[in-house]
């Protein structure tokens, strides 16, 4: 079995390495010294991600992403991983379940997120389930006018700054096995 990269994959690898060195490395000290990057730096990186066509690699071009395969995403992430701390995560991967959204939902949420105009967070982790969807106990029950979510989520990465959150919840079989419900700010967050 030949494990060598194709010419296309080698080109992607070289481009991702160059992006990491030219766009991310210059901001590593800011990230390390300030426990993150400034809004101005983040906006600069967002524009660079768009210019280099690395935005939303996990979503189709029709939905505003780059349509990378899992293997291509792995090649990209291998190079991004050379950057320090969380700065490599400045390149965004909108929640994958959004690909199943209606066209109206895609236009309101997914496409602007793929284009760097909105930020999503995905709430899946629970105390007794970790991030195993089959073990999650949060439910969404149909009520007049929508859904009522009953459960508790932990460790929602960028949940404090996201424009919206997708909540992983189980529903009755009449509606399907699970649903992702969009919750808009202001968020009500309970702390211990």
Mass-distribution shape: globular
Q: Which strands sit side by side, in order, in the main sheet?
A: 1-4-5
Number of helices: 5
User: What is the CA-based Rg, rounded?
Assistant: 18 Å
Task: Bin the helical content.
Answer: 25-40%
Strand percentage: 5-15%
Q: Tell me, rounded to a whole number, the average pLDDT.
A: 87
Distance between the termini: 53 Å
The profile of the biggest β sheet is: 3 strands, mixed
* Structural class computed from helices and strand pairing: alpha+beta
Number of strands: 5
- Poorly predicted regions: 186-192
Strand/helix succession: HHHHHEEEEE
List keywords for this structure.
192 residues; alpha+beta; 5 helices; disordered C terminus
Question: How would you portray this structure in words?
Answer:
With 192 residues, this protein is an alpha+beta fold. The chain is 32% helix and 14% strand. It is built from five helices and five strands; from the N terminus they run αααααβββββ. It has helices at residues 7-24, 28-34, 39-51, 70-80, 103-114, and strands at residues 120-123, 139-143, 146-150, 164-170, 178-183. Strands 1-4-5 form a three-stranded mixed beta sheet, with no helix packed on it. Strands 2-3 form a two-stranded antiparallel ribbon. Helix 1 (7-24) runs parallel beside helix 4. The longest helix has 18 residues, at 7-24.
Short description:
32% of the residues lie in helices and 14% in strands. With 192 residues, the protein is α+β, with helices and mostly antiparallel strands. It has a 3-stranded mixed sheet, with no helix packed on it. It has a two-stranded antiparallel ribbon with strand order 2-3.
